[in-house]
Write a structure and sequence with these properties.
- With about 210 residues, the protein is of the alpha/beta class.
- The chain has a single domain, classed as TIM Barrel.
- It is about 45% helix and about 15% strand.
- The protein has nine helices and eight strands.
- Strands 1-2-3-4-5-6-7-8 form an eight-stranded parallel beta barrel, surrounded by six helices.
- α1 packs parallel to α9 and α2 packs across α3.
- The longest helix has 18 residues.
- The model has no long low-confidence stretch (mean pLDDT about 95).
């Protein structure tokens, strides 16, 4: 399965109707999002397994209709139950080796926040790694941004697998992230919270495509 260049981490907002959330995810896919993740944290309405699986099945159907790789954040059990292609694991989540034991068919994505973590992630042979947060973001409260310097460090490693810069990236700063060496980005608010998610995705994808033009 080929991973894309514009990765949306779709995170339901507190009190957001499921129909609105799914419509915004669909619009993002229409605009060019080509890799998708569903992220439901434990303290939210969709955080418990049954609710997470139910929403995951709905988002998985949208991804399959577009032929887009679909990942679940954190939960190997939910990823396997809802038919996701993979699971995204943070540094504090289940170790990749254990995840592979539980669900060997799942692709694994890996968060990294420092060069040593990126090097270790490469040795774990994930499907991709994420590098960040580039900028401070409410998605990761309390976590200091790794900055553009970290993007440059990962680019210098030349990892033999896809990697995404992530964290506070939007249309106003994507060009500096790409100039630092990234060729793929992952976003949350820049697309999902935009007035028109399709237009926002198109703008970001255009910037990504210009790098390889």
């Amino acid at each position: 399965m080929t991973l894309g260049r514009l990765y949306l981490v779709a995170t339901p907002r507190p009190g957001q109707p499921v129909t609105d959330f799914l419509a915004r995810v669909q619009a993002a896919l229409d605009g060019g999002v080509d890799t998708l993740q569903l992220r439901c944290k434990a303290d939210t309405a969709h955080g418990e397994a049954r609710a997470y699986i139910t929403l995951g099945e709905q988002v998985a159907a949208l991804a399959r209709a577009r032929g887009v790789p679909f990942f679940i954040n954190d939960r190997v059990d939910v990823a396997a139950a809802c038919g996701a292609d993979g699971v995204h694991l943070g540094q504090g989540d289940l170790p990749p080796a254990w995840a592979r034991t539980l669900a060997p068919h799942l692709l694994i994505g890996r968060s990294t926040h420092a060069p040593a973590q990126a090097q270790a992630a490469v040795s774990e042979s994930p499907a991709y790694l994420a590098a960040g947060p580039v900028h401070a973001t409410p998605t990761k409260p309390g976590r200091a941004p790794a900055g553009l310097a970290y993007v440059r460090q990962v680019a210098a490693l030349r990892p033999p697998l896809p990697w995404y810069a992530i964290g506070g990236i939007d249309a106003s700063n994507i060009h500096e992230v790409l100039a630092a060496g990234a060729t793929r980005v992952a976003v949350v608010r820049a697309v999902l919270d935009a007035p028109d998610p399709a237009v926002a995705a198109q703008e970001l994808l255009g910037a990504l495509q210009a790098v390889s033009a």
